[in-house]
Design a protein that fits this description.
The protein is 0% helix and 51% strand. The chain has no helices and seven strands. The strands form two sheets. It has a four-stranded antiparallel sheet, with no helix packed on it. Strands 1-2-5 form a three-stranded antiparallel sheet, with no helix packed on it. The N and C termini lie close together (7 Å).
């Protein structure tokens, strides 16, 4: 997590899906359990409220993975 010009820059490794016939199509970004963004890629640049940041992979069926915390 890096802050540049007042924006937070988050990057993470691509998610995988072990389910047969399924794959990751996007990501959900949460702060303190509240969804704040839906993303197609592995980067977020923008303002973020203070709190615990978590990213979840979303598969082709719309199911979310367990979250990964970003420090």
């Amino acid at each position: 997590k890096v802050t540049r010009n007042g924006n937070t820059v988050l990057k993470w490794e691509p998610g995988t899906d072990a389910s047969p016939g399924s794959w990751v199509v996007g990501y959900q970004l949460y702060v303190d359990g509240k969804q704040i963004a839906r993303l197609n890629g592995t980067q977020y640049v923008g303002a973020l409220p203070k709190g615990e940041i978590e990213v979840r992979s979303v598969n082709v069926n719309g199911l979310e993975s367990e979250g990964t915390k970003i420090e």
